[in-house]
Amino acid sequence: MTFSPDNDRNESKPGRFLTSFFHAAKAVLFSPQAFFDAVKAERGFRSPFVFLLSCIVVHTLFVALTLGKPAVVLFSLFNGLVMPFATAALLFVVLTRLFNSPGTYEQTYRVVAYSAATALVSWIPLAGFVIELYRVYIIAVGLRSVFSVKMSRALAAIGVVVVTYIVVFSLLGHFIGPQPEPPQG
Q1: Residue 8 pLDDT
Q2: SS3 122
Q3: Do 128 and 122 meet the contact criterion of CB atoms below 8 Å apart?
Q4: Is 127 in contact with 147 (CB distance < 8 Å)?
Q5: What is the model's pTM?
Q6: Residue 180 lies in a domain
Q7: The pLDDT value given to residue 25
Q8: Per-residue pLDDT, 40
Q9: pLDDT score for 10
Q10: Ranges in the chain, pLDDT < 70
Q11: Helix 70-93, helix 151-176: angle, nearest 10
Q12: In this structure, is residue 117 part of a structural domain?
């Protein structure tokens, strides 16, 4: 069973939701190719958003318990909920404009949202970086499935997005970063 619009009616029951969520997370983490092949024809933002939201809530709870710093918890929540929309938009533009691949923003968002399954374990100290690399792999597998592109193009699209983020956040840091202390004396 996958976490999909086809079984939304059943997911509204708490036991069914947890079962469906667990099966989807397990499939994304351990069989991403089979998962994305199974859901690539599905439509709608609801199921991937609810899945993403669930993963981010679990992740944020663990971050709050382990770090206890409100600013980090708020950043984690913001990052987890907002960045997938931006990442999907950038990936969509790169794949459709740069690589001329057919596909939709919705399909791209589904891949990015379901890759949030890694957030269920990325809060573990020292494992986060490795888990994020695995997330890149999961996204590449999903893009390959959804856009019918070679793995090299999927990875290249992700690389372009990563470089874009590095440049944008570096510029933001430069312009709004820490201000020097005024001289005293």
Answers
A1: 43
A2: coil
A3: yes
A4: no
A5: 0.84
A6: no
A7: 95
A8: 82
A9: 41
A10: 1-15, 177, 179-185
A11: 130
A12: yes
Number of domains within the chain: 1
**Domain for residue 126, yes or no?**
yes
CA 62 – CA 46 distance, rounded (Å): 24
User: Collapsing DSSP states into helix, strand and coil, what is residue 161?
Assistant: helix
**Which residues have CB under 8 Å from 103's CB, separation 6+?**
92, 95, 96, 146, 147
Q: Do the domain assignments include residue 62?
A: yes
Encoded tokens for 21: 């969520």
Per-residue model confidence (pLDDT) at position 182: 65
- Identify the CA nearest to 93 among candidates 163, 157, 167: 157
Structural domain range at position 75: 5-175
Residue with tokens 């269920």: 120
Cα 68 from Cα 36, distance rounded (Å): 35
Condensed to tens digits (0 to 9), the pLDDT of residues 107-158 reads 999 999 999 999 998 877 778 889 999 999 999 999 999 999 999 999 999 9
How far is CA 178 from each of CA 69, 173, 181, rounded to the nearest angstrom? 20, 8, 9
pLDDT score of 183:
67
Structure tokens, 154? 């999927």
Please report, for residues 34, 61, 124, 151, 175, the alpha-carbon distance to residue 19 in angstroms, rounded to integers and kept in the order given.
18, 20, 23, 31, 46
